[in-house]
């Protein structure tokens, strides 16, 4: 059976297409032309819908000895673990993927697959390609080597996310936001989370499978979420708004720092070892100049990755906050839908008594506007302070 697709929650249609394509790909390797396989794919869907999970599973199915993505063979295992020699994952560490990285990857992807099946290039966050990198990729997609497959992940096929010409050469697999019930049942049946915990984290994660899993497992993540959901009742005056803004930013910074600290330290010590710190022989001086450059380069990449981790953490907090104001609005309107945050439902219904529907909507819009502002590079502190003031005034 094809087990590699089991992690794709609530995506039956997409899984059907990918299974069919994997079977066709296996037929091509056997020498019988199959229908349904193509060399360039785009996986789209909202954050948490499983774009990269889908791409990884499909890559595994392509490398699977049985051609279905059994999950047990060497090809499946190494692909899922990220160590298969013919599967390259491009995960942008900073805010964009540069042209020199892309050229190197494209060149590698053009070589014959060492395992005799496919050369697969998975580009996560393809929306973060620079224009020049996009052009380098387009060239490769337009003239694909016979056994090379490109898997791109983007939030949507909007021209802001992926160029129209790349889009036109790819087959698109749209993933939908999985319903909370589907997430809850996966957490309960596969991860062994108790059913009632699974249910509330699935709702609180608002369709984001990875977030639901983190909330179920990590007490720190739950604590951070609670601090965010305490914001609405802390806004009692202008001073409190600025305090709340500082606290939210500091929390995002701390979360991001924890997320990247380990990788940063490991990378730095690996580089220092490789450069052989010390040395006095001939050429040591010029070697030292060269290694200073490499260390600088590493620091630049790490800084860029830290910035991105901070933005991601802040964005998660804003999504949680938006969920609260959405709850207030649905309670106010008596909409027949479940609340996002079951644990703050009482607070939300007290707010619904107090606020008008219009002022609730303005608050929700203030959170969404803050997300948009940060997305277009407004300084996070300024955007968050403006949001807090709007949340307080209503
Ligand atoms: Zn397999």
Give a quick rundown of the structure.
With 394 residues, the chain is α/β, with parallel strands linked by helices. The protein contains 16 helices and five strands. A five-stranded parallel sheet has the order 2-3-4-1-5, with helices on both faces.
List the helices and strands and how they pair.
Layout: H1 12-30, E1 40-44, H2 51-63, H3 74-81, E2 87-90, H4 99-109, E3 119-123, H5 131-142, E4 148-154, H6 164-169, E5 171-174, H7 180-190, H8 195-204, H9 209-217, H10 219-229, H11 231-234, H12 238-275, H13 284-332, H14 345-354, H15 357-375, H16 380-393
Parallel strand pairs: 1-4, 1-5, 2-3, 3-4
Helix pairs in contact: 1-2, 2-3, 4-5, 7-8, 8-9, 9-10, 10-13, 12-13, 12-16, 13-14, 13-15, 15-16
The structure holds zinc ion.
Zinc ion binds at residues 64-66, 69-70, 72-73, 75-76.
What ligand molecules are bound, each kind once?
A: zinc ion
Order of helices and strands: HEHHEHEHEHEHHHHHHHHHH
End-to-end span in angstroms?
A: 54 Å
Helix content: 55-70%
So how many helices?
16
Determine the mean pLDDT. Answer: 89
Structural class: alpha/beta
The largest sheet has its strands arranged as 2-3-4-1-5
The number of distinct β-strands equals 5
């Amino acid at each position: 059976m094809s087990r590699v697709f089991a992690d794709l929650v609530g995506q039956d249609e997409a899984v059907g297409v990918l299974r069919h394509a994997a079977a066709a790909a296996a037929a091509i390797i056997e020498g019988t032309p199959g229908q349904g396989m193509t060399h360039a794919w785009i996986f789209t869907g909202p954050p948490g819908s499983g774009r990269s999970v889908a791409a990884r599973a499909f890559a595994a199915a392509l490398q699977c000895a049985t051609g279905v993505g059994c999950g047990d063979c060497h090809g499946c295992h190494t692909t899922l673990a990220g160590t298969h020699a013919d599967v390259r994952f491009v995960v942008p560490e900073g805010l964009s993927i540069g042209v020199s990285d892309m050229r190197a990857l494209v060149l590698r992807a053009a070589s014959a697959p060492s395992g005799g099946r496919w050369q697969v290039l998975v580009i996560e966050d393809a929306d973060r390609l620079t224009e020049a990198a996009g052009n380098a990729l387009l060239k490769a997609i337009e003239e694909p080597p016979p056994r090379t497959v490109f898997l791109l992940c983007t939030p949507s096929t909007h021209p802001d996310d992926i160029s129209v010409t790349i889009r036109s050469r790819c087959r698109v697999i749209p993933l939908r936001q999985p319903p909370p019930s589907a997430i809850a049942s996966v957490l309960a049946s596969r991860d062994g989370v108790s059913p009632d915990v699974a249910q509330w984290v699935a709702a609180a994660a608002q369709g984001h499978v990875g977030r639901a899993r983190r909330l179920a497992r990590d007490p720190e993540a739950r604590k951070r979420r609670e601090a965010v959901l305490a914001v609405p009742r802390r806004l009692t005056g202008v001073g409190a708004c600025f305090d709340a803004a500082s606290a939210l930013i500091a929390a995002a910074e701390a979360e991001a720092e924890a997320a990247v600290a380990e990788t940063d330290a490991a990378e730095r010590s690996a580089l220092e070892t490789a450069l052989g710190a010390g040395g006095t022989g001939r050429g040591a001086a010029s070697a030292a100049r060269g290694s200073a450059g490499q260390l600088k380069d590493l620091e630049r990449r790490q800084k860029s990755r830290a910035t991105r981790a901070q933005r991601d953490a802040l964005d998660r907090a804003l999504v949680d906050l938006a969920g609260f104001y959405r709850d207030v609005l649905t309670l106010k309107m008596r909409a027949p839908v479940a609340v996002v945050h079951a644990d703050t439902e009482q607070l939300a219904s007290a707010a619904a008594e107090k606020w008008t529907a219009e002022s609730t909507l303005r608050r929700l819009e203030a959170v969404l506007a803050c997300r948009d502002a940060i997305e277009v590079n407004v300084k996070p502190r300024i955007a968050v302070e403006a949001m807090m003031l709007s949340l307080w005034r209503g």
